[in-house]
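BUG-381 | component: ligand-complex export | severity: low

The export step for flavin-adenine dinucleotide jobs runs without errors, but we want the raw record kept on the ticket for reference. Input record follows.
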Amino acid sequence: MAQNKPSIAIVGAGMGGMAVAATLLQAGFDIQVYEQASRFGRIGAGIQMLPNSMKVLRGIGVEERLRQVAFMPHSHLNRVWDTGEVKRELPMPEDLYGAPFLCMHRADLHDALSAAVPTERIQLNKKLVGLDQAGGPVTLRFADGTTAEADAVIGADGVHSIVRGIIVGPDAPIHRGRIAYRAVFDSALMPSGITPSRTKWWGPDRHIVIYYTRADRSELYFVTSVPEAADWVTPESWSAKGDVRELRRAYEGFHPEVRMVLDACPDCHKWAILEREPLPNWSQGRVVLLGDACHPMTPYMAQGAATSIEDAAVLARCLPDMRGADIEGAFRRYEAHRKPRTSRIQAISSANTWMSGGNDDTSWLYGYDAWNAPLDEPAAG
Ligand code: FAD
C-alpha cells in the first residue's frame, strides 16, 4: 500500500461501500470500511445488474464469479398486466452495450464484492454517530465510544445516511405511499417455469417485476409496487414481513403467469419505497457521499445499486494520488461529472415511465462506461 496516498474511511458496507472499497484498493489507497451491522445477512431479494454496472464489476474482477451464479435473461421485457401483450422488449446480447445483463440474488452480488476486499479492511459493529473535520484529518465517532481518523471520508451509508445529515442537513426521505412486496423462492414450487426474461408486468396503478436469480433457474424473485393508503414505513426496511394473501389479492386479474408465481410464493417481505429530490451538494470539505446516501431513487429502473457502483469507479478515478493534494477539488469534480446523470435517473425512476412503451433511447444509460467516460464533462444523462 503506497504510504503517500490519502487514507480513506468508508462508512457503510452495502453495495456502494463495498464497490468503492474495491475500486480504491485497486488504485492503491489505504482504506477502512466501517459498518454498523454485526454481520452480513442473506437478505432475500434479487438484483438486476445492467451493462453499465457490469462494466465496473468487470474492472474490479468479479464478473466471472457472477456469471457462474447469475441468470442471464433473454431480454428486458415489458408486458401488459392482463393480456400479456408486449409493450417493449429489449434483448441485451453482450455486444450491444459491451457487457452482459445479469439477474442475481442480492447476497451473491454482495459476496462477490466482499471477496474483492480483505476482511481486515472491514470493521463491523461500527455505527457512525459523528464526524469532525477541523483542518487536519477527519475524525469519525462511533456509537461504541471509539474514534478513527482518515484523510477523507466517503458516506456510503444508504437512504437514511447519517453522513448526509451531517454535511447537507436533516430532512426525511420522500414516501409517496407505495409499497414493494418481494420474495425469493424455489422455482420447484411452481407447476411450470416462467418466461426466461426479466419481465415487468405493467398494471394501471401497480406493477410486478419477475425474474430468475440463478443460472440454473432454480430460484426466482419478484418485486412489486402497490399503492398503500397508510403511510407505512418501517426502519426495518429489509426484514419486515408482508402478508402473502394480501399480496395475492392486490394482483387479482393479472396474467396467469403472474398468478402462478404469486400462488406458489410461500412468504413475502414488505418495503416502503423511498426516494429524495437531488441534493444541492454531495460533499463538504473532505467528506463526500456515494450511492443512496446522495441519490436514492425508486427501484423502477433497477439503477440504485448500479449507479452506486458507477460512483465507485468515478470516485477512484478522481481521487488524487498524493497525500496533501486537493481532495476537496477531486470531490467536486466527481460530483460535477456524476450528478447530472444520477439526477436524470432519479427523475425517470420516480415517474416510472422507463421502457413502458415508446422507443426511448437506452444507449446513454446502459452504454455508459464509468472507467472511461471523460471526467471533465457531465456523465451521459
Ligand atoms: P445500502 O446498500 O443501503 O448500504 C448502506 C450500508 O450502510 C448498510 O450496510 C448499512 O447498514 C450501513 N450504515 C447505515 N448507517 C450507518 C452508520 N451510521 N454507520 C455505519 N454503517 C451504516 N438497484 C439496482 O441496481 N438494481 C436492482 O435491481 C435494484 N432493485 C431494487 C429493488 C428494491 C425493492 C429496492 C428498494 C431497491 C433496489 N435497488 C436496485 C436499489 C439498491 O438496493 C440500492 O440503491 C443500493 O442498495 C444502494 O447501495 P448503498 O451502498 O448506497 O446503500
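Assignee comment: Attached the raw record above. The two ends are 35 Å apart (CA to CA).
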